[in-house]
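Sat 14:20. Reprocessing the chain from the morning session after the first attempt stalled halfway. Input below, unchanged.
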Amino acid sequence: MKALTAIGLSATFAAGLALLQGSAVAQQKSLKEQIQGPWSLASCNSTTAKGEKTTYCANNPRGILILAGNGNYASTTIAGGRKDADAPGVTANFGTWSVNEADKTVTIHFVGALNPTIEGKDLKLSISLNGEELRTTGDLGTIGIQGSKVDTTYRRFK
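Finished this time. Tokens:
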């Protein structure tokens, strides 16, 4: 009888362990699933070809990045300390996005932008996700802004 009880307990334990492992695998989300949603700008260290901070990153900027699950996105960054009706220091664009899971990059396709020269172009950004923080980095030369780099960090809206 003790042998049957031991076998029964072992089988129950093994089944429970298999269920736990299965649920852990089921809960692991793709990178695309992990980064979709609204993000608030935490820091902006993007630079121009001269190595200066971009105008929209100056003076405690604010911004939002929305990565919709259907592949659309919208992004706006606004520098602090602007004067009335002052447009420099603002960047805004929208379009589509896709993720390359293997190389941890996101490709942004600009459909509309405050800067019309980037419309229709693609920007590939390296991304890293650390808990509720998303960092994007890349070279803006691929969209015609030679020598400029983008380096932004966002925090997930709660």
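The chain is about 20% helix and 40% strand.
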